[in-house]
Amino acid sequence: MLTLFLLLESSLALAEPPKPPLIVLSQDRTKISITWSPVLNASSYQLFYTPFPFTGSESIKNVAMGNVTSGSIELWDGAAFIVAVKALNDAGSSDYSNIELFILSKAPLLDPEASPVTGNWYKPPVAITWQWQLKKAIEDDGINEINEINTSYPAQLYDIDLFNSSPSLINTLKASGKKVICYFSAGTYENYREDKDKFKPEELGNTLIDWPEERWLDIRSQNVAEIMISRLNLALLKGCDGVEPDNVNVYANNSGFDLSARDQLAFNKFIANEAHKRELSVALKNNMEQIPELIDFFDFSINERCHELNECDSLTHFIINGKPVLNAEYLQSYIDNPAARQALCDTSKGVQFSTLILSRDLDDSQRFSCF
Questions:
Q1: Residue 100, Cβ neighbours under 10 Å: how many?
Q2: What is the value of pTM for the model shown?
Q3: What is the C-alpha separation between 308 and 295, in angstroms, rounded?
Q4: What CA–CA distance (Å, rounded) separates 193 from 186?
Q5: Considering only Cβ atoms within 10 Å of each terminal Cβ, which end of the chain, N or C, has fewer?
Q6: Helix/strand/coil for 63
Q7: b or e along 49-72 (b: 16 or more beta carbons within 10 Å of the residue's beta carbon)?
Q8: Which CATH code of 2.60.40.10, 3.40.50.720, 3.30.390.10, 2.170.150.70 fits the domain covering 17-103?
């Protein structure tokens, strides 16, 4: 009787559709390779693909892969596809695996002489209203409960964290008419990010003085470039309208690497062009010294403390070119002193900057707007 029960239980398990696999992409110039995890009780797999940009369900094609769990193919320069895999057995098919995107290029990834790519993506206007919140606000009682991002501000653009923001949050913001910019650090390793194990030890430099959980990256590394491509793909697949790549002035810091201004230009141009290939808007974060060389590659500026540091003149390049400057100031005097705050806002409006006075933690605990 026990044997019969066990056989019946086993047959019922076999009669269930399989679980979805997990796929991993790797690319080498114009060659793409896809592997996926074997799935218990799966008898075969189907690879689904559609060109990017996605034009509708009728564009989705599939290939029967048999019982293999990998495949590779040589494509063409600029080939761009969204891919996923399903597992199958006699009872049916699984849900889709994770959905991934690739855009292939036969050209070197990091080129200081690169030209801007052209295309159609979101370009924010000068003097746009915005909100910047990268951390969730901690409750006053000190318990580790957290509030969601505050979506109530009448701002046209929200800048939020790429990894910690769910697609549902992004969709909620977009459904209310807001544009969504997604933050990630392009020039530093953060020991708490989900992709931290992709970095190689030799790519990790000195620890940042004010951020002990971060280390500077060797931005000359092809592996680092590939990780940033994966982050841009994640931003696209989550529904972000654009990205804020942070720490894009590694060369000007004590990174532990012998980096030149040309190394930084190559990396920053690469980030901007790869964002634009994915129809993502992209911000130049700080890096005042290289604005003249990068103004044609970036759609807007996100700046910290230019009024406090008397650096705002460099940012007028963006305004002259019809691109906004999203400025954040942190001085406590701007928060505590209404006269100082009004003087700051008057100056900011005079040069058409979009200025917020925020807590340095960017957790929505303090906020004053000059617009």
A1: 18
A2: 0.90
A3: 23
A4: 12
A5: N
A6: strand
A7: bbebeeeeeeeeeeeebeeebeee
A8: 2.60.40.10
